[in-house]
Each structure stands twice: as structure tokens, then as C-alpha cells.
């Protein structure tokens, strides 16, 4: 084959180059964080295309998030131009949805199937658990959901499970019943849950080789990033795709990974997949990358020191040619608020020093930690966005609107139908809902069809009218979504959603409400309408079903939008594969990291350490580690202890600071190795800490300064920063921001609405 152009190989080290140029059946790239694994994968694709060894359609690349897929596609396009169109670069889930949409009819699903996210699955399981009173047997919803997910990731379906289960154990027997009913309900709704997407594709390929054959022929080059986090089902899928098709050899497989970054064992990820790769693919070539191109040596030294405490690994040391860089900054706060204030202040300082907000990230172990952070960031007018957490698509009003669309696209989806039946309130009660469900069941029709028979239910004329009204509305919307005649453009999803939201009375109900939250809900609906507009711009021929597919797959990290200048907040799990100039790791305390749940699981603490390692290695230039001596949760204050992981970092790498009000031995020792709260909480800090009531403890609401009249030149007093003068005012209403030059605390940006300030 032709040599790829030198531009493609530019700057690569010899081993990266070898990996890009390798041509053969199987390649394993194992390397530490930031050593260019993802970059090499990207260049490999570009080089295959550039030399015309492969058509774009012959390439399947699997990434961890849709966001990462988008980035990789962009980079390849940048290197080889539009020769890259038609590649499949996607997550496991998206690739499987694409396959299932085309092929699922072979095994009895309609191509308009619904994808249940974890909230949907739980709603369904909740009903079953209640119906069988399973929680008295110790089978709670969360427990059942986790177990079913795990089994599906092991490719064990309800029938397979029934063959191994001990039926004389009543708990096991009941679990089997629920697992079965759950699977049946999904099938009846023409729906797949997230785990099904992969497991069912594997079943499909195994049961119908003629369906798998064209994919084996088509994909000549399969590349998988973050291979250490594949679970058994994903592994099996790759196995299926890399079997030889008739008359042609198996596809060439490239996988890259780092066993030190395996953080998904709880989801069934199997580190053995990477360790045993050489056995599964005996002809495999292994390339090791060692040099790190992301972080300073200080950051790498910390990462190396921490991960060295895991015994179940091959020794490996990250190094860079880039120099030591700044020291790590450690901070010990008295409370979670102190910690958050530190984070906000440092962010402002970095920003003033010229760093963009988008180059800064704050990580935490659990979503619950965001509340204090958010409060302070809002107050300091630091623009931020949360990845994961209560995601846009998990909000109730968005789920309502989506349920309307799903009810239109997939008439079999009873869950969606039940959700919208009396939303907004139209007087259709629980009894009527059950009657409709029974009617559907008895006659073997869908829930939606049952609406047409409202007259047979024996309900009052008002209720019957409401049901018929909904039924007619859905019919009207369905007619709009029919595939368009040739040459015609489809009716935009925007129009369909507008119709549904208007005619159903949903929007009117929110407008009429006096609940201030409903105003925000209305804004969210408008945001969703904007999303449909954008979708149509990017996909002029996109149908409703395409829109639903796209939105169902938006994973946590996908909300990250580089173009926006915001600080990114996310859990450590979401941070994988990403990089930022400055990273704040918060809550580095026992019970948070390692998380208290991990103590009971085999390998739990090691996995938590890998999570910490992943966090550290995201940082390019600046790393901050912070913790709080006390935390409030559920209205109670508890005392926390420094994470054992902190003591694993050589003390000379960290420059420790502490809350201004803190003194005494326990208040943040200078040496990480001796960190402990020997001082105790009762003595000292509590009394010295200036009290700041930002929130009304009774209502939990933040103070509202919305109406405060402020002009440039006004003097103000801030609870924490003291007195200062207003220098500039931007934005209006809830988004009004004042820049204040404080006499001693420096210049700060404050969100007027919530800032604890008074005009003097
Ligand atoms: P992770 O394990 O965190 O996923 P990775 O191994 O995939 O990391 P990349 O994200 O590919 O690493 O690369 C890390 C950084 O190093 C990126 O900013 C990338 O552009 C840069 N980089 C990679 N290789 C080189 C090189 N040869 N010269 C200069 N920079 C490089
Ligand atoms: Mg990577």
C-alpha cells in the first residue's frame, strides 16, 4: 500500500507511528493515560482512507461517548476531507441501534421500536415490584434493575437464567418471574432497554447468520477505543463482527485501552477482555506507548504514585518531556461551602489570568456534591454546566413531551401512552387507565388503539370525550409523520411537536399555572422545540424516528459543547477520555473517594483508586485537590476524614492551603502523609468561622436580590468580601451580573439576584 502523507505521521513518536502504519489482523495498543491512544486510532483511520486501502463504509470505529465519536469524525475529516463521509464512528449503543433499526423485523420487532432509558426501565420495574410485592422479599427496584442489567451484559436472558436458577429459593423464583415479566413487557411495547441494544444485536447475529454476513463483509476495519471498559456483551459483538465471512478473511481489529483506567466493573466491564486479547487473537501485534503528551510531570508523578498502590497490575510509569509544571494545590475547607468557595475563587483567578472557562473542569464522585458547588458558582457568576446529573432529557416535562412523540412513533408503547393519558390533567383517572389497559389486553390490541373504544368502557361522556380527543390528536400527528412521497421533504419534527404541545393543552396548562417552577418548565419545552429545529437543520430528511433515536442516545458527556465558554462539572466516571487545562478534584475524603459502597465489593477500593487516577490524568497544566472537614447531607452535618489516596501522593508535590478561619493541628496539615483531623470539629473552627446565611434554612431558597437597583459607582457590602464599588453591570433580570471591585477581596463577578449583598 501507498505510504500515507507525511502530514499524517507528523510529530508521532516511533511507536505511535508503528501503530498507525500496522497492517494485519489484530492490533492491541496498551498505554497509560494521555499517551495518544485516541489520537493514534484517529490517525490510523485517516491513513487507511488516505491511501485508499479502505473505503469509508468499510470502517467501524467505536468510542465511549457520542461526543467522542463526533470529535473523532471531525478530526478525520480535517485530515482527509470528505473522503471520510460514510464511516461508522459511534458508540456501541448507536451502532447497535442502527443495526437493529434495519434488521429487527427479522425477529419480530418493528423498526420504530422505542429505546427505554434507565428511568423508563425503572418505571416499568417499579410497577412489577409493586404488583408482586417483591420488596418485602428484599427485591427492591434498584436491586432488581442492577441485577437484570448485569445478566443482560453477560448475555443471560430470562430463559437462559431460568435454566440455572434454584426455584426452591422463593426469592430467586420471584426474581425470575419479574425478569420474565419485564422482558415480556418490553417486547409487548416494542421496546429495548439500553442493555438490550447490545445483547439483542448479538442474539440477532448468532441466530441469523445471514443477517450478520453483510456486516462482516462490509466492515473491514474495526477499531475500539477504551477497550478496558467493554463488557461481555460488547466483547461478544466484536467477536461476531470479526468472524470471517464466506470467501473473505476476517476484519482487521484494533483495540486500545489502559487497564489502569478500568472504572466500569460495576456495570459488568471486564478487564480480562484486554488482558486476554492476546489469547483470543493469537496473531495480534501489541504496541506499548509510554510517553505522555497531556500533563506536566508533577501531575504524572502524582498519578504514578497513586496507581502504584494497586497490586493487580503491570508496573507502568507515565512520563513527559514537557517539564515539571506548577505544583498541585491542595485545599482543606471547614465545610462543603468553603470548599466550593475555594473552587469558585480559583476559577476566577485562572480566568483573570487568561484561561478560558471551557478549559476548566470540576469533578466529583457523586452527583449529590454539586449542590454546594452550584450555589457558589451561581453566586460568583461563573458560567458552568453540569454534564450528567439531572439531564435535560430526564426532566419530567421533557419526558412528557418525548412521550407524546413516542406515542406517535410507536403505537405499541404503553408506557408512553400511560404517561400522557392524563398529562395535562384531562380528568382521566387511575380506574379508567386500568380499564383501558384491560381492554387492550383482552382484545390483543395496543393501548393506543384501546382509546378508540372509549365508548365501550362505560365511562361518563366527559371522560369519553377527553379520551377521544387525545386519540384524534395522536392520529393527526401520526398522519404528519408518514414517510413523505418521493422528492417531498418530510414534515419537520418541530411542527409535530408544536401541534402536540399546543393541542393537548400541555403548554396552556403550564402557562396558566402559578407555580414559579412551571415557568422554567415552559422554557425547557421551548428548548426542546429548539432542539428539533436544530435536528432538522442537520438532517433535512430526518424523520421523527430519527429524532427519537438521536435523543435517546445522548449520553452524559455528550452535552459538552466546546463552543460555549463554560466550566464543566461532572462525575469522575463521566470524565474518562477528556482533558482540560485545569482540573479540580473535589471531595477527596474517605466514604466519598473511595466511596463507602466500594468497601463491600471485591476489588472495590482498587477500582476507586483507578477512578482517582482517571481524574488526576485529565489535567494538562493545573491540578487542584480539595476536601472538607464537614459535610451536610440530608440536613445533618457529618465529620469526614481525608481520603487514604491523598497520603499516597508524595507530599512535596502538593502545596496545601486551608479555609481562612481554620487554625490548629487538624485544620489541614501541610504534609499529606499526616493528614487527619486531630483537632476534632467541636473545638475551634466552628466558632471562628464567620457565619454566612446564604440560603433561608427554612425554605431552602436562596436570597432574592432580583429587584435591587444598582448602578455603576454604587457602593455595596458583601457578606464575605466586605465593601466594594460596582464597576460594570451586564445582563438583565435573573441574569444580571455586577462586577465589583472590593476594597480588600479583589474584583468579583456576582449574580445580583442571589449575591449576599446590600447597597450602601
Ligand atoms: P486517555 O487514556 O486519557 O484516553 P489517550 O491515550 O487517548 O488518553 P490522547 O487523548 O490521544 O491520549 O492524547 C493526549 C494528548 O496528547 C492530546 O492532547 C493529544 O493531542 C496529544 N498527543 C498525542 N500524541 C502526541 C504527539 N506525538 N505529539 C504531541 N502531542 C500528542
Ligand atoms: Mg483516549
TrEMBL record:
InterPro entries: DExx_box_DNA_helicase_dom_sf, DNA_helicase_UvrD-like_C, DNA_helicase_UvrD/REP, P-loop_NTPase, UvrD-like_ATP-bd. It comes from the Bacteria. Pfam families: PcrA_UvrD_tudor, UvrD-helicase, UvrD_C. One of its GO terms (molecular function) is 3'-5' DNA helicase activity. It catalyses: Couples ATP hydrolysis with the unwinding of duplex DNA by translocating in the 3'-5' direction; ATP + H2O = ADP + phosphate + H(+). Residues 297-577 form the UvrD-like helicase C-terminal domain. One of its GO terms (biological process) is recombinational repair. Keywords: ATP-binding, DNA-binding, Helicase, Hydrolase, Isomerase, Nucleotide-binding. Residues 10-296 form the UvrD-like helicase ATP-binding domain. ATP binds at residues 31-38. Residues 661-693 are annotated as: Disordered. GO terms for cellular component: cytosol; DNA helicase complex. The keyword Zinc-finger does not apply. It is an enzyme of class 5 (isomerase). Its EC number is 5.6.2.4. Belongs to the helicase family. UvrD subfamily. This is DNA 3'-5' helicase. It comes from Amnibacterium kyonggiense.
